[in-house]
Design goal:
868 residues; alpha/beta; Rossmann fold; 16-stranded parallel beta sheet; 5-stranded parallel beta sheet; 34% helix
Length: 868
């Protein structure tokens, strides 16, 4: 059916309402066929444009394709229901007839939206990804280093640039700033010490959307890459952290000046071996810059006594102008005001040694000083655990804390929720002393130099075997499983099978995730791993678990998520100590034997495709985390002890389907709630809630809920006094986050309507609104949030007002507000002080904004060049 003019829509609606169910079903099939043809055309066009020209689809095109997939999957259910319903009048037949009419209208709208008169593709020269980065330290030196690299990059005669300097001097940070400044097409590849040509090819292919999974010959792979890269204009490839030279042609990098290459390395010989036309040294900080950085990391308001200041300057000199060393040492001494402690710390820094073969004599003693000064063995153990992940691995903070908890690294206080809080406290300690770096809002990473230090320490005690992300293929030599190993990581490799019976009596963590393992695991493999607490086999191709898993009586975490071919697991009856069980996205057909014996289970992750996700599952009383993608959750309101719940990819319309005549006290203990990819979600509750509902909620995450127009009522929102974190992203129909007080909750004592124009949220620390194209308002009331320290607002072009009021003492540590200059200037503010505090975080972005920013930056570079 062609596009329906507005004037004919009423007649069209009357027409389809008058037809029989069978006639409308036939019409729906015809409309679906036409929609499917359009879908095929779009996919083919996108694939060609992505592989040949490196172009990406617009966000609206991606969302449209997702909606088409969703309605296509719904058709199967509709067809099945139509076969079951009789031909005579019944309520079921009427309801089904109404559903078919609704789907016809949805398909027609999708066909209309699928015309894309303005094209399918994003303009990559403007809409390029931005890498998170930190501020450059050492104003003069860092800026001089950056501009020298930028000028070489702008030189048409220069193709290959080498940037070198000692570890921790700031090469990667500078290059991230360079990367974000580049307006042409660009690729970032982390090389690292254990690289291979195949791994580099995979990284580049993934960046440009080229599928090399079926091509195993290195030469043919390079030819395909070469052909794809040649079609891209003004391409810049950045190879970060190179340790030895390699021929660019072996990877597939074009040799002409249309493709520029920049590499960073600790070794000048690598620049020579790569025949770099420009070799640029990243210099250490001057004495003055080093001292300013040291003072800044102690705290802007800190006043040192003359005695302590003298010692602090000596400690700064011990760091030899190395930014990473200065930052870690100063962070370790933050809030220390005892001069005796400072004198002792200086002596410790002078004596500090790693005593590890191959460690840099200048750098690692400085970094180890910060490790040695961690306040407890528990914190040190948690830090070392991070070395098990591959280099530059962006680890979700929640996931990392769960590993620590399952391993028993967090002090056993008997209360699971308190352990979670303690885990976040330890994480913040490691971030505060700069041994971990916060990455975006939910992840952390470890600097490669810090990771080298941790791995060096764990070669002795505690004993780790870390072979993560180094492209091991085939099988593992059983000798790698040493008898004294306490933790082993082979994650993110190409391991096909595990055979033999390793003798690892001390082993407590084994990470095998993100390997094919299509050859599966020998039945006796876990026989002699009786101390094992954490077994991670997630994202592998295993079809079954060996029987020896059933005897791992000390196991605390069994992670099998995204094992899509896994159909059965052995008995879990003996795993009475199990705390975390993740069976989501598996093909398990029956509830595992012994599930009822998991009396200590705290966190359960399941999917609607699992038998364990059906109503036959009896949930343990002590469960505090339940993550599911169920199509309905009849038991949810009754889980009064539930503290964390993630729900994704299901057809639910309401989190709590409460009717107006019901009064429920709902989820009074819930602390963390995540709603992801829910295509039909309309809101939290369609009825009324009693006092205490959501009273403990601290974290709220909403992602890709395309029909959600608002999240909650004002009456509910103003009582969320524990709320710390709000993150809402890619909800295309959301016009306001908090709906004005039209829908009142039950007015009982303590729940009277708010007549004031302000709402106090004393604990709100993080607010993120991203990719909300229709968002006009967050809240009509002014939100007073004295604890706000992080804010991110991006791609919300219709947002007219930011109703935040910040106290004068509020310190926003992380922020990014992206939009056009016109949008920023037109924003309304209830509190002028808030605009002043947030102004440093505003960046020009969006279609027009990025053009303006590019022009401003080019003018700034030109001006700097003239001055020099």
């Amino acid at each position: 059916m062609e596009f329906i003019p507005e004037i004919a829509k009423t007649a069209w609606t009357q027409y389809i309402n008058s037809r029989s169910l069978e006639d409308n079903l036939a019409l729906l099939r015809t409309e679906m066929q036409e929609l499917g043809s359009r879908q095929t055309d779009v996919i083919v066009s996108l694939h060609t444009a992505e592989v040949v020209d490196g172009k990406k689809p617009k966000a609206e095109v991606s969302l449209w394709l997702e909606n088409v997939e969703m309605i296509t999957s719904q058709m199967t259910k509709i067809e099945e229901d139509c076969r079951k319903v009789g031909r005579y009048f019944s309520r079921s037949r009427v309801a089904l007839g109404n559903l078919v009419i609704k789907k016809i209208e949805e398909v027609v709208k999708l066909k209309e939206k699928g015309q894309f008169s303005e094209g399918l593709l994003a303009n990559l020269s403007l809409e390029m990804e931005i890498l998170p980065t930190t501020k450059l330290v050492g104003r003069t030196t860092a800026e001089r280093n950056l501009e020298q690299i930028w000028e070489s990059l702008m030189d048409d005669e220069t193709r290959l640039i080498g940037v070198y300097g000692m570890g921790g001097v700031g090469k990667t940070t500078i290059m991230r700033h360079i990367y974000n400044r580049i307006k042409s097409q660009k690729i970032w590849v982390t090389v690292s010490n254990d690289f291979s040509i195949g791994r580099l090819q995979n990284s580049i292919a993934q960046a440009i959307g080229l599928d090399l999974s079926n091509e195993h010959d290195e030469i043919r792979r390079s030819m395909k890459l070469l052909e794809a890269l040649k079609r891209r204009e003004k391409l810049v490839v950045i190879f970060d952290d190179m340790w030895k030279p390699f021929p660019l042609e072996n990877v597939g990098i074009p040799e002409d000046n249309a493709c520029k290459v920049v590499l960073t390395t600790r070794l000048k010989n690598v620049c020579r071996g790569m025949n770099c036309e420009k070799k640029i040294t990243v210099e250490v900080l001057s004495k003055e810059e080093a001292w300013e950085l040291f003072k800044g990391k102690l705290g802007a308001d800190v006043v040192l006594s003359s005695g302590i200041e003298k010692i602090a300057k000596l400690m700064t000199e011990e760091c030899d102008g190395l930014p990473l060393g200065i930052i870690t040492v100063a962070s370790a001494m933050r809030e220390k005001d005892d001069i005796e402690e400072w004198r002792n710390a200086l002596e410790e820094l002078k004596r500090s040694t790693t005593e590890i073969e191959g460690m840099n004599d200048e750098v690692f003693p400085i970094l180890k000083f910060s490790y040695d000064r961690l306040k407890s063995e528990s914190v040190r153990s948690c830090f070392l655990y991070c070395a098990l992940f591959p280099e530059d691995h962006q680890t979700p903070a929640k996931e990392l804390i769960r590993y620590w908890m399952a391993e028993g690294l967090i002090d056993d206080m008997g209360d699971w929720e308190k352990k979670v809080d303690k885990g976040h406290t330890i994480l913040n300690v490691l971030i505060d002393v700069c041994l971990l770096v916060r990455w975006g809002s939910t992840q952390v990473v470890m600097h490669d130099l810090i990771r080298d230090l941790a791995i060096g320490i764990t070669r002795k005690s505690p004993r780790f075997v870390v072979k993560a992300g180094i492209q091991i293929t085939g099988s593992i030599d059983i000798e790698e499983f040493t008898e004294d190993a306490e933790r082993i990581s082979f994650m993110r490799n190409e391991i096909e099978m595990l055979s033999g019976e390793p003798n690892c009596p001390k082993l407590s963590t084994l990470l095998l995730r993100e390997n094919p393992l299509s050859g599966n695991i020998s039945h006796e493999f876990f026989n002699r791993m009786n101390s094992l607490r954490v077994l991670d086999l997630s994202n592998t191709q295993i079809e079954y678990l060996p029987a020896s898993v059933s005897d791992l009586e000390n196991l605390h975490a069994l992670l099998l998520n995204r094992c899509v071919r896994l159909r059965e697991v052995p008995s879990l009856a003996k795993l009475k100590r199990l705390r975390i069980l993740n069976l989501s996205d598996t093909d398990i057909k029956e509830v595992p034997d012994g599930m009822e014996c998991l009396v200590n289970l705290k966190e359960l992750y399941v999917s609607s495709g699992n038998a364990v996700g059906r109503n036959s599952l009896v949930l343990p009383d002590k469960l505090v985390m339940y993550r599911c993608d169920l199509s309905s959750i009849p038991c949810l309101p009754h889980l009064q002890r539930l503290q964390t719940c993630d729900i994704w990819s299901c057809s639910m319309e309401w989190l709590l389907p409460i009717r107006d005549d019901s009064k429920i006290t709902s989820l009074p203990s819930i602390r963390q709630l995540s709603l992801q990819e829910l295509p039909n979600l309309r809101g939290l509750c369609e009825g009324v809630l009693l006092p205490g509902s959501f009273a403990c909620l601290t974290h709220m995450f909403v992602f890709r809920c395309p029909v959600l127009e608002n999240l909650m009522s004002l009456e509910l929102f103003q009582h969320l006094q524990c709320l710390k974190y709000i993150h809402i992203e890619e909800c295309s129909e959301m016009e306001e986050v908090i709906k004005g007080g039209e829908e009142a909750m039950v007015e009982e004592e303590g729940y009277n309507n708010n007549n004031n124009n302000t709402i106090l949220l004393p604990n709100l620390g993080w607010l993120e609104l991203s990719n909300l194209g229709k968002l006009k308002s967050f809240c009509k009331q002014v939100i007073i949030c004295p604890s706000l320290n992080s804010i991110l607002i991006k791609d919300c072009p219709r947002l007219k007002k930011i109703p935040l009021s910040l106290a004068d003492s509020t310190t926003v540590e992380y922020g990014e507000i992206v939009g056009s200059k016109e949008w920023w200037d037109a924003l309304e503010w209830d509190d002028p002080n808030t605009k002043t505090l947030l102004l440093p975080f505003f960046k020009v972005g969006g279609r027009r904004g990025r053009k303006r920013r590019a022009k401003e930056e080019s003018e700034e570079v030109a001006s700097t060049s003239r001055q020099q």
